[in-house]
Amino acid sequence: MNPQWTLRRRVAALGLLMATVLTFLAAGATTTAIANRDQLDKLVDTVGPMRAASDQLLAALVNQETGVRGFVLHGSAEDLAPYQKGLDDERTAAAVIASSPAATADIKQDLTRVTRLAAAWRATVAEPAIAAVRSQGTSAGQAILNDLARQQFDAIRAAVVGMQDRMRVVRDDAVASIRGSSTTLLFVLIVATVLVIATCVGLLVALQRTVIGPVTDLAVQVRSVARGNYGLAITETGPPELERLARDVDAMRQKIASDLAEVEAARIQIEETNLLLEQQAAELVRSNRDLEQFAYVASHDLQEPLRKVASFCQLLQRRYAGQLDERADQYIAFAVNGAQRMQRLINDLLAFSRIGRMTARFAEVDLDRIVADAVGQLDGAREAAGAEITWSGLPTVRGEETLLTNLVINLIGNSLKFRRPDEPCRVHISGRRVDDSWEISCVDNGIGIEREFADKVFVIFQRLHPRDAYPGTGIGLAVAKKIVEYHGGRIWTDTEHRVGAAIRFTFPMAAEPVEVTESAAPIDPTPQPDYADRVKESVA
Length: 540
Description:
540 residues, Heat Shock Protein 90, five-stranded mixed beta sheet, 7 strands, flat, disordered C terminus
């Protein structure tokens, strides 16, 4: 090849040479394959159906003989059914053989002979025997079916077998022709393979000299530069494209050398920034641990004086009730109620803060069983409200059973609490699959949630009604939101739902298991009221 040829021109020339060789080989292989296909089509489409028709012809003749013999023995008209069907099948099979392109003159002559023998047998044996049975009885018919009649039918059978032998010869000729064309095709493929291998070797040698060699030399120089030898000048060899590439690589080498100092300075700055981030992360962990410790200590220290205040106020209420004036009794009741409400707020706040910090591993949880357990725990509140709670289509999800139970108790408890006074309360929990998540819905016929408050109901301590109208701390839906988000889902209020309230939330189809995490704060040894009991209290 001309050294001044571009790489594209060289590759085009090599490709044209290869395409020319492959075209000639493909033309020979195609011609042979077409001939082979024609022979195969002849064998499958003509010889095969013709031989099958000969088998059908023989079967039809046997059915005729069997039908006549059965009729002669029993005299029943039903026995002639094979005979009649055999006549139809014989005509059909004879027509297929006569019209087959594969039928030679000898085969057609054999077919004529078979048809003539069959007609003669029917005229001299079958039809007279049938007529004799109908007029004189089975004995007369049996007399006709003698050894001579049997020999006459055997001659028909032999004629059919002879015709089938000629068909077999035709089939063998077609098979031999297919084998011959297959051998030719195999020879063409072998020659094509040899030529392709030779052409590929030639292409490899040409590419080695014109492309691979210069590219390899350039790659060696580039690797030397990559190892840090930025002073090595890149030499220009090979086709014009490779020479331009070498010049570009050398320009890049010079640019890298000039920017190396800046890159090193940036690396040092990144390392310092990473170290600062690690220190800040460690400080944040310590700060969170201190905050958890403070929350525990603060809540524990607050609960102890609250218990004393509540206890002594209750003692005053019981011992001096009626001995003081009505306003004093009212003040004492306010103090007792305020202390108890503060205790509930602290306990709920502690429960809210522990979600996601003190947990067990996720497991497969059957929501159907969870809802059944929650309804059992709220049985007293349900009876007091006269409510009907139903559920259907709930899946099995990965999660923490205790938290999911609290989630369901919160949602059902809200529905029982915010019911309509003028109609029976109904709550239905259902599930359905949406894309790669499970969507769970808790729908009731209560007072509902206004559209403008759809997001505010999930804010901690957010209340939409006066405290004396509906009891509670205003933390229930905030706990529900934190539990759902801890399980990788989201929760919202369906603003399109018009009658009552509809809270919907999702769970991933395959949530990843969460490792056990424990708070650095000590565990409060004082028994806390069960969350379900507090919900029952507030609903009741």
